[in-house]
Design brief:
- The chain has 279 residues and is mostly beta strands.
- The chain has 3 helices and 18 strands.
- The chain folds into 4 domains: 57 residues, OB fold (Dihydrolipoamide Acetyltransferase, E2P), CATH 2.40.50; 61 residues, Nucleic acid-binding proteins (OB fold (Dihydrolipoamide Acetyltransferase, E2P)); 57 residues, Nucleic acid-binding proteins (OB fold (Dihydrolipoamide Acetyltransferase, E2P)); 59 residues, Orthogonal Bundle (Arc Repressor Mutant, subunit A), CATH 1.10.10.10.
- Helices cover 11% and strands 39% of the residues.
- The strands form 4 sheets. A 5-stranded antiparallel beta sheet has the order 3-2-1-4-5, with no helix packed on it. Strands 8-7-6-9-10 form a 5-stranded antiparallel beta sheet, with no helix packed on it.
- Strand 4 and strand 5 form a beta hairpin.
- Helix 1 crosses helix 3.
- The longest helix is centred in the last third of the chain and has 13 residues.
- The chain is elongated and about 75 Å long.
- This is GntR family transcriptional regulator.
């Protein structure tokens, strides 16, 4: 049986006017349109294809890379909204439908949303949902303290960055543990700092088994040395000036110089930062 919303290895059965027909060991067939066929091929070759439904609700294969697959989350751009719901760009030709009942809040054209891809059992169609919480649970955690995990940042709050952990759980990177610019939709590696009694997951971006060093501190230190030991930038400098001079946000810059100051490597003055002589 062909699996909608998933990659599968299929064999080339024959070439026709609309494209290549691919098949599996169960005698299921699906069309791979000519625009996606390999430059060179022979009948019987294997093709790793993604299968979804075309505009006529027929299974079709593609070698394009979708932004999410069945039962996973992605950060998608809303391309259109009509009386039935929203339509998202998800990396393949036909847009992904998100009905109004599956929208956490009304979607607007041009905005980006965290979306979960599922197969509707009644219609057997691939559908998106921005009501992501119902697809996550911290009841039975499949992770341990200090473990490396994959995260998708879902939204930022005053507490920090909320994230989906390994596509299954809720997690949070506290503001005090964020030493770089991160945004909604970012995918990255993280580490489990702590699992609380209520199964809430605290995350960090640096391995908790080592001393966390502010990642931009060394960069600022190098820039200081290159400038002869002084930079006319400080914690009250204009954000645009900091960005133009160092390519850092003011938040990242302040954390970097704060780290250097605590390590007694710099002096923060009214007109800038000064490198202290090492012992």
């Amino acid at each position: 049986m062909l699996k909608l919303g998933e990659y599968q290895v299929l064999n080339i059965l024959r070439e026709t006017e609309p494209g290549l027909y691919l098949g599996n060991s169960e005698q299921d067939e699906v069309l791979l349109p000519h625009r996606y066929k390999p430059e060179t091929f022979e009948i019987g070759d294997e093709v790793n294809a993604f299968v979804y439904l075309d505009y006529d609700e027929r299974p079709v294969a593609t070698t394009l890379t979708p932004y999410l697959t069945l039962n996973t989350f992605g950060y998608l751009h809303c391309a259109d909204v009509n009386e039935y719901g929203a339509f998202m760009d998800w990396g393949v030709q036909k847009q992904l439908f998100v009905p109004f009942k599956e929208q956490a809040r009304p979607m607007k054209v041009g905005n980006w949303y965290i979306v979960y891809l599922y197969l509707d059992e009644q219609t057997q169609r691939l559908v998106g949902s921005s009501k992501t919480n119902k697809y996550l649970s911290n009841e039975n955690l499949a992770i341990d303290k200090f473990e490396e995990v994959d995260i998708l940042v879902t939204h930022l709050t005053e507490k920090g960055a909320n994230a989906i952990v390994n596509g299954k759980h809720h997690g949070l990177i506290y503001e005090a543990d964020i030493f770089e610019d991160i945004r909604t939709g970012d995918r990255m590696k993280a580490y489990v700092k702590k699992i609380r009694n209520d199964n809430k997951i605290d995350l960090v971006l640096q391995h908790p088994g080592y001393r966390s060093i502010e990642p931009n501190a060394n960069y600022v230190l190098d820039e200081l040395k290159a400038a002869g030991g002084f930079l006319p930038l400080h914690d009250k400098s204009d954000p645009e000036t900091i960005k133009n001079e160092l390519g850092l946000s003011k938040k990242s810059f302040k954390k970097a110089i704060g780290s250097l100051y605590k390590d007694k490597q710099i002096l923060i003055k009214e007109d800038g930062i000064e490198l202290l002589a090492s012992d």
